[in-house]
Protein: HECT-type E3 ubiquitin transferase
Amino acid sequence: MFAEELSSNASRKRQQENRARRRQLKNEKQKQDAKATAATAATAAVVATATPTPATISTPVVTSTPTPPPIVADASETSGKSAAVANALQQRQLRQTTQLQLKSSIKIQSLVRAYQSNFKLLQQHTTLLKKRLSDLSKLATLIKKKNPDKPFVPPVATTTAFTQQLLFLTKSIPYQRRNSTTSTTTSTNTKDDNKNSKPTQPYAQRVQLRGLESSSQLFKQVLETCVLPGLTNPDDTANPVVQWLQQGTYRLSRLVHVAMTIATTPHAPIACVTTIGTFLRILVLGKHSNNHTRNANSSLTSQTAHATIVPLCRTWFLDANHSDLYLFPVVRHFLLWQMGSQQQPIPNNSMALREDCFSAKERQQADVLFQLLTTLVTSSGKSTPLQARFVTEILTIPLLTWKLSPKSVAQLVDTSNSNNNNNNNNNSILLVSMMNAFLELYQDPLGDGKIAMILPQVQEGIMTNKCPATNTQCLLANCTTLGRLCPSTQSLTATFFYLVAFLLDVVPLGTFLTRDSAAVEWVTDGKGHHTPIVLSPVILEQCKLLLVESYVRNLFASAIDTNALHTTAVLEAQTDKDKKHETDFVSTAGATATAMAAKEARVDRNRWLASAKWASKIKKGVSNMLTSSTERRASSTTTAPAGAGKLVETSSVSRQLASGNHTNVAKAVAAASNESSTDKRPYSPQLLFCLCRTYAIVLARWGGGGKADVIATQQQQQSTTEHKNEIATSRPDPCTMALLNVLCFGTDLVRTTWALLQSDKELNAELQATMDKTAIQSLTARPCFATYPPRTKLSHDSAVLLYVFVATISHALIITDDVEIHEMGRPLPLHQLRRCIQLLKKVLIRACEGSSSKQRHASSNPFGLSLVAASVKVMRDLYDRSARRPLCVPKLWLVDNLMVKEISNCKTHTDYVDLLHSSPVLRICPFLVSFKRRLKLFERIVTTSRIEMQGVNDANPFNNNPLKPGIPVQIMRGRVLEDGLATLNKLGRNLRQRINVQYLNEAGARESGVDAGGLFKEFWTDLCAIAFNPNYALFRVTEDEQNCLYPNPLSGSAHGAETHIVLFEFLGRILGKALYEGITISPQFSHFFLSFLRGDYNYLHMLPDLGSVDKQLYTNLMFLKTYDGDAEDLCLTFSVAVDEFGGNKQIPLIPNGGNKEVTNSNKQHYIGLVAKYYVVDRVKEQSEAFTRGLWDVIDKSWLRLFNEPELQVLISGATGGALDVEDMRAHSRYIGGYTGIETTIRRFWSVVASLNTKQQADLLRFVTSCERPPPLGFASMNPPFTIQRVGIMRDGDLLPTASTCFNTLKLPTYSSEKVMKQRLIYAIEAGAGFELT
Structure:
């Protein structure tokens, strides 16, 4: 209307009057608004200063809409119309603001009045209820005095009234918001995980405690005075709960809600919580028998009450679909978030305070809830889901045993409690029954390794950064702790270790790692999100209790009974095949490993290739090889002596061995074993299988062999581990080394597992099926149930036993010397070790066969990888020992037809080298291939390389690789070493090229010979004879019978610090060039120096190697090793005295070793350091220089095809100096008119056979420039040994001459054998060059 007036044509006077009137109204309105605002502010101040008495009730603050700022008209606006519109809008906003403020003030005042009224009403009802309870207690006291035998039961109406009044006092008032900070708990209905608050229980949303102490006291009095007496009364009419249920469940439900709220509130009075526990037990069980209550026999005596109340309450507590009182989350929530001063799942001070981080009152409060839950679960009969839920919800709570009292913990592990449970059979403990149900319910996902998906991924809506441990770790820690608390290890059945095995297979890798810093793991919340957490050291400590030495020893003591398994009888029994192997081995008695290798190099095994015996026998199964009917009968009728397999005191025996007295060793060992016999132990074979499986997983994941596939090439390993999580360690963790010490030396596991593998038919059949159908690398130790129940058959039991055996015997061989193996039968008799070799040979072949499959690599498992790695380690160790002192005949190691096809397919040097690097057999277990075949492979490798480097001396016009010009070298016969060092050492890797030698005689004139290969061989033979002469002070001779060479530790003093390094590098190149050119030389090297040449010295053999270097020192160390007295009496320190050119020098073995005494606790360390110093450290500089020179010419991987004796045969040939005349004659060629039946030829071979060893070597050198035949015999000599006819008229005309380049002997036709022998000896002993030609 303002707009209409402004637009009219009224007079100016009327307009001014209207403006004045509006201005007056406006001023009056502003005065009224100011008064209203002042009144509102005063009211708000009164409300704000009002402090309510109960701390648990607060007044919500209602905020009013702020007054909008007045709209100020723009000064530049001149139009009156715009100003009027703006003023009108401003007035409208002011009116709306005033109305809103008025409504807010009225609402605040009403809330304040309601609060004051409710508070006054609550006070009145509280006072009234207390007075009524006091009066009722006095009345009950008076009645009991008159009738002591008759309990006082209040009328139902009285109980109902008191209960209603109590429920009213604990009911949430209408204006109380659910998310109020003053309520006991807060709402959990949030969609997102709240990281800054703790979850709550839904039943507490309708309950409000106004003062915990007062409310708890009232509740306790109502229960004890009114509810409990009527509840346990046999008369249903006097039972208030029965009467309530006739009208509905609301009143009982509200009462239970209040009880649960008080029981789960932190720091609730223990007396009230105990009464609540009694009340709840009667409701859900119908009876109560608990030491917490004074009335130990209170129960529901009425059948009607029992049938009405118990099923209803059990449904509330045990059925998640019908009630918000589901007891599992209630107990879990309290144990996780309501205990401890910090109210965290794992308090930050738990490592320092240990169990004291939880008070005794908190434990008592937790006991009430925990015992109520366990009693409910156990009284439900055979309820698998409830028992399985107990494992997933309760046993995954961290520090569970610390949060409960010893009595509650004993309820889980005490066998005396099992008799009271109907669902427990065979006196199994409650813990095992729960685990049994868990395994039965989740057998399928557990078999697939998905146990982490079964357990809660998020701790009650809180990310795992609030709980620094995964659920699998918490479950493993609780299982381990509870298992150690069992009164007897016999209580822990196989079920317990099944679950532990499942957990060990999935727990984070940091669980058992030994770290100086905090362990950090990436964990998932189950929704694809990963979070790094610092693992709790307390949880890790509890998990590692599984590896405590005494605990492990007691477990296996309960599981192993050598008498029941007939271990000794099984191990001592020999089959016909064992006897045949023993006969073959005895026939080689006295032969050294080098001699046996030389003999093996000359054996032609190709005639057996077509039979393929091993390939056909592998299909017949492992059982045919491991056991026979004769052995099984022996094992079933023979009983092992008591104490078999125990560690015995053999110090006296060891001293006899150290002193060289090896007689009556078996009697001494038997006597020592009888002295250490112990009583019988309880036996459970199924428990043994489960224990082996449990600790096999630990060894597989943390033992260092489960990360990489030793069979696969480096490229395959990288491709298969690029996107995989770390599930196994690459190096052995100290915890596994300690575990192996216990398993090997604290139990009889080595002998027991091997005896089981031989005597059990089912295990043999299973092992056969496993090897035939499953890739070794993909084997898993995780339990996998074929049928359930009964739980009696697990997959891969035989593979688990095999792995445990292999891992333990590998560790036991570390401290086992050759005398113990050969004379004392430790750790197994010799014939059993031969069986072990045969079995592991098949394992390695099976693993190598599957190494090329990418799919198998992708599905590899730490257990399978560890089994292969441990098998390789054991076989290498046994093969190394057999290289020192043979364990069996060489053919026992071999596999027929192995690598024949692969080698024959190679044509070029690149093909051979690729085969060497790609074939897992040649890289990992070359000893499975015959020595002769490996020699041929090496010969083809160097020959093809030599052809590529030097060319071919062939007149064929189509030859595309002609002979290349060689490097000319002039050598004076009196200065072979000096001239060779000056001209050849600088060539380095170019030594692979052809070298043309021109000899100068003593006068300095050139000899007439032309080098077509023979002069070079002669020069190289002379060079080796001089360089490796011990008189040159570069090498020493061992003190054993073989007189082998090893680097002289004092070579630096003899030749100078820099010169002797250059000389050793040159000698390494000399040896490499000899191997490269196929020249056999005479030096015999020591066993440990040959190991250095291969580049993989086994430091476990230092002590035996010391025996060849210094026999006296070795004897002294063996005496110290077995010394029974105090080692300090010997006055030894960690230093050694070295004699250098007549002067003694003290060398400390460790920093400040001269001041550290040798004691009984550190003498083993001292012995190892002494052996290492004399065998390794003193010659380390020389050995490294020698190998650098050797590997310049011969690749290290080529040499690893051979062990030490085989490498010596490769260097020095297959004979010890004496010629195999028959082999030489069979592979000789005749030219110039000679034939094999001619008289002169027959005389020649008769003369050669009559020569001594030195003369035979001189003859061979005279013809070929080499004193020894090739390693493969004369059949591999190229050109072949040739005899050329030289016709003469008289015997004195010519002497025998030779063309060394072509291995040709020019033999005149002498008239008699006597003349031929004289002329031949004269020619080969003259020592001239080409002057006799």
Q: What stands out?
A: The first helix runs from residue 2 to 7.
